[in-house]
Amino acid sequence: MASEAPQQSFVRANGLRLACLDYGNAGAPPAVLVHATGFHKELWGLVARALAPSHHVLAFDQRGHGDSDKPAADYHWQRFADDLAGFLDALRLRGVLAIGHSSGGTAIVLTAAQRPELIGRAVLVEPVIFPRSAIASGDRAGDRGMGERTRQRRESFESPEAFFQSFRDRPPFKDWTDEALWTYARAGTAPGPDGRVHLKCPPSIEAQVYENNRSVNPWPALEALRCPTLFIQGGSRGILAPDLAEQMRTAVPHLRHVQVAAASHFVPMEQPEAVSGAIQDFLQAS
User: So what's the pLDDT on residue 138?
Assistant: First the structure.
């Protein structure tokens, strides 16, 4: 049976302590949820609870995020795939249902190609996949502009409530559900010695992730995917290339594609029920 409240523990992988939420139902088929850059494991809450009756759901904080260890450097995107593989190895999990948002989806693609025994099914929610033309240009510099903007981001707030109010009417957060935004505020900050709450993913670390976002070429990994794969895409407000689904289907002929028309890149925080429903349909069909 799934537990009412997930239990936090730590898993050691690649020399790091990775924080993990366990939603119970041990012995059921495993499902592992991987968050996006700058976010944390708790943001999967609604999707995790929808899966928990049928799966042993685990959500973990990637390096530099949430309650996991935060090395000062080494945020090459291959490291996130290595950590996912290390997490699964530490727990002796194989053939998992792996669900990843944004950079978390990219980590799943790399892992599934490099260690196919680890991933039984892959759900990629708005994965960061640059078009082939951008990769062919040979530019591996990453998004310096996004990195610079992130380094200037506010890092502390008077309270989680102040965090919530500061973001409530600001894009892209204004389209998030109240529960998702409150979860981001509550679980994404920690009290500091100055009496304020501070982001658990410091801007200096988040910026490094953006600055390394072209440090891997995901296309060979996509072409190597053999597991059933679902691609969940936002609508016109998403950040992905308009023809990415067509490009991905060429690389992954067995790809299943679902578009949530009214959503943006942040579809799990805007329409978690649509994400959960697409995953359930995918599981029944695959």
Answer: 55
Judging by beta carbons within 10 Å of its beta carbon (0-12, 13-18, 19+), is residue 195 exposed, middle or buried?
A: exposed
What's the rounded Cα separation, in Å, for the pair 39 and 25?
A: 25
Tell me the C-alpha distance between 114 and 48, whole Å: 26
**197-199 and 189-191 strand pairing:** antiparallel
Tokens of 265: 């890149």
Q: What is the largest CA-CA distance in the chain?
A: 54
Q: Which of 131, 97, 92, 90 is nearest to 112 (CA)?
A: 97
SS3 state at 150:
helix
For the record, the structure tokens of 261 come out as: 């028309």
Question: Could you give the 3-state DSSP secondary structure of residue 8?
Answer: strand
* pLDDT surpassing 70 at residue 220: yes
Is this prediction's pTM over 0.85?
yes
Predicted local distance difference test score (pLDDT) of residue 142 = 67
Residue 13 to residues 77, 104, 169: CA-CA distances in angstroms?
A: 16, 17, 38
DSSP H helices in 120-232 = 132-136, 144-151, 160-167, 178-187, 203-211, 219-224
The C-alpha atoms of residue 11 and residue 91 are separated, in whole angstroms, by 8
Encoded amino acid at 242, one letter: P
213: helix, coil or strand? coil
Domains and CATH numbers, the chain: 2-285 (3.40.50.1820)
Residues paired with residue 256 on neighbouring β-strands, in sequence order = 230
Whether residue 18 contacts residue 84, with contact meaning beta carbons closer than 8 Å, is answered with no
Distance (Å, whole) CA 72 – CA 68: 13
> What sign for the dihedral angle of Cα 269, 271, 277, 283?
negative
